[in-house]
Design a protein that fits this description.
This protein has 149 residues and is mostly helical. The longest helix is centred in the middle third of the chain and has 17 residues.
């Protein structure tokens, strides 16, 4: 209970924590059930805060957040709801543009446009950004890109 009151935990996190610390499967299941009944653990609340924090602070995209929540065994409907609450299209575009601009500054300016496009697209995919948004932003950024050799 003390651990769950300090930070949000999913049912999966709570169960894994107890198993790592010597609880049996049956004990862990009973304990998680108790924590859920008494609102110490709530997958919906966890998903909402996780999605908001990863988008705002880690600058992750929707795909990467969804994959991380799936790994924590959060149901798909809760993942979709959390992403809808945490990420709106305009904020996502703004975040992608800012992160891509930072990445572009670090790319050698002797590279061709296709090479730069590929690096930026790969960067966006690794961050979990949507490909359509990445392509739009990269197209705008590289419209005036000058290759220098």
């Amino acid at each position: 209970m003390a651990l769950c009151s300090r930070s949000e935990k999913s049912e999966y996190d709570a169960r894994e924590y107890m198993l790592r610390h010597g609880a049996s499967e049956e004990e862990a299941a009973r304990a998680v059930e108790y924590l859920v009944e008494n609102k110490f653990v709530d997958n919906e609340r966890f998903a909402d805060s996780f999605a908001a924090d990863k988008f705002r602070f880690a600058k992750w995209g929707a795909y990467k957040i969804a994959a991380a929540l799936k790994q924590k065994q959060i149901p798909g409907d809760l993942i979709a709801a959390a992403l809808d609450k945490a990420i709106d299209t305009e904020r996502e575009k703004k975040t992608v543009a800012n992160e891509m601009a930072k990445k572009l500054r670090g790319i050698d300016n002797t590279e061709s446009k296709p090479q730069v496009w590929q690096k930026l697209l790969r960067f966006g995919a690794a961050r979990g950004y949507r490909a359509d948004i990445c392509n739009d932003i990269i197209g705008q950024m590289l419209a005036d890109y000058q290759e220098r050799g």
